[in-house]
Amino acid sequence: MTRNRIRPSVGFLTPFTKMQVLIALFALAALVWLVPMIQHGRLMLVAMAVLGVGTVLGPAFFAVDGPIQISLDRVLWGAMFALAAIGWRMGNVRLPKLNRLDWMVVGVVGWFFIRAAMGGAVPDGSSPVARWLFYIAMPAGMYLIARLVTVQQQDIQIMMIGMVGLGLYLAVTAVFEVYGVHGLVFPRYIVDGEVWEFFGRGRGPLMNPSGNGILISIALVAAALGFVYAGRRGKLVYAVIVTVLMVGLYATLTRSAWMGGIAAIGLVAMLYSPRWVRVLGLAMVVLFGGAFVMGLKDQLVQMKRDKNLTAADAQKSMALRPLLAIVAWEMFKDRPIAGHGFGHYFAHNDPYHSQRGYDLPLEIARPYNQHNVVLSVLVDTGLVGASLFVGWLVSLMGVGWRLVREANRKPEVRCTGVMLLGTMIAYLINGMFQDVLIIPMVHMFLFYIAGVAVTVRECEMVIKVPENAKSPALRGAAANGYVSAQVPASS
């Protein structure tokens, strides 16, 4: 559902808006400090900055409206590509040889653009091409940046630490939202009661509890991996961090977010625990999980979450999903190959809510978007778009699993695979109940982590080489400071 957010006006600035402007100017001035990063080939750090700024200081915080809305993260995203071009000219950035997954991303970006541009006008006057730009093209740009760089071990460590830090911020903010400690919430628009949707839940700076839950789930995976590889004192620290993240995940008050987070951290437990622990843990989850769900089924269904909605409204939201699925099926049957157009759902869905063949109140689902990401893609882009998109997701899961299971892998390489799989699990579980494609920043994280994993899979990770290395091959590579992870450890 579309939300109207307050934007800074030209003629009058409130004190809070003045603070936003000052922060925006300071952030723009800080772009100068990115130049040394590119001189040393540190595009990975710039990409992490894009993710952090886009999450906390995105368009809802400060934006200049125009033909294309400009915000801090989008300026930084453009600067990242300018720096990449400079790095390419300097020889610090190389163009990768495209593999199968890269071509699938090209196909998704291209087909979604065609279906956005050729679908005609939409009732609310929004631009489908702008939706494609912000939710498909820009995330694909993050994937491209991750494919351009040579990944170092410390990059993976920095990525995981950055995800944990961002997740802690989101978790603590979500707790403050739920318990009404609004004075400690930043940015302040998060607790703006006039934006009523999801108000009272831990919706975070993305203004969406499901999206907030996905990012916290990614942080949970990173923190759980930190716990696995940390020493005794480090394990205590990471145990506290995991607890805070779990509390923040609960504060989203969103069932799909809970399931995604639990499944993601369960993945880490499954991969790093002895077999008998995994079997015992699975049995306990099935036993106690089944008892919990059966005992609290009514409470979970009727749980009051938003401050402006009743428990009955929350229960009604679950009844919408099968109705939306029926509408999606009928729309798909009419245009199965190319779909109705990316971002054109509301331009074509109206007649399908008036069908009487199902003897169901399809009309009540008329104002709502699809609540399933695969059905949304299928309706908008047809079998062509859905095949490309789903095929890419399935292929990514294969990449992650191979990084995790292949022998003689360095911990950072295996962690990259686990991070990708955990992200995919959180994304897909939430995507079963929400159109996560149109939640801000979610695809930016997904495409970036996917690009890093594909690059690592292509043996582009580099490791520090000691100057006194015995191997002539390693000594030669040490002259440049690094050697490809493709070199056997026994060299």
UniProtKB/TrEMBL annotation:
<feature type="transmembrane region" description="Helical">
    <location>
        <begin position="158"/>
        <end position="179"/>
    </location>
</feature>
<feature type="transmembrane region" description="Helical">
    <location>
        <begin position="382"/>
        <end position="401"/>
    </location>
</feature>
<feature type="transmembrane region" description="Helical">
    <location>
        <begin position="236"/>
        <end position="251"/>
    </location>
</feature>
<feature type="transmembrane region" description="Helical">
    <location>
        <begin position="103"/>
        <end position="123"/>
    </location>
</feature>
<protein>
    <submittedName>
        <fullName>O-Antigen ligase</fullName>
    </submittedName>
</protein>
<feature type="transmembrane region" description="Helical">
    <location>
        <begin position="436"/>
        <end position="456"/>
    </location>
</feature>
<feature type="domain" description="O-antigen ligase-related">
    <location>
        <begin position="244"/>
        <end position="390"/>
    </location>
</feature>
<keyword id="KW-1133">Transmembrane helix</keyword>
<dbReference type="InterPro" id="IPR007016">
    <property type="entry name" value="O-antigen_ligase-rel_domated"/>
</dbReference>
<keyword id="KW-0436">Ligase</keyword>
<feature type="transmembrane region" description="Helical">
    <location>
        <begin position="20"/>
        <end position="36"/>
    </location>
</feature>
<feature type="transmembrane region" description="Helical">
    <location>
        <begin position="279"/>
        <end position="296"/>
    </location>
</feature>
<keyword id="KW-0812">Transmembrane</keyword>
<dbReference type="GO" id="GO:0016020">
    <property type="term" value="C:membrane"/>
</dbReference>
<dbReference type="Pfam" id="PF04932">
    <property type="entry name" value="Wzy_C"/>
</dbReference>
<feature type="transmembrane region" description="Helical">
    <location>
        <begin position="211"/>
        <end position="229"/>
    </location>
</feature>
<dbReference type="GO" id="GO:0016874">
    <property type="term" value="F:ligase activity"/>
</dbReference>
<dbReference type="InterPro" id="IPR051533">
    <property type="entry name" value="WaaL-like"/>
</dbReference>
<feature type="transmembrane region" description="Helical">
    <location>
        <begin position="43"/>
        <end position="63"/>
    </location>
</feature>
<keyword id="KW-0472">Membrane</keyword>
<feature type="transmembrane region" description="Helical">
    <location>
        <begin position="75"/>
        <end position="91"/>
    </location>
</feature>
<feature type="transmembrane region" description="Helical">
    <location>
        <begin position="129"/>
        <end position="146"/>
    </location>
</feature>
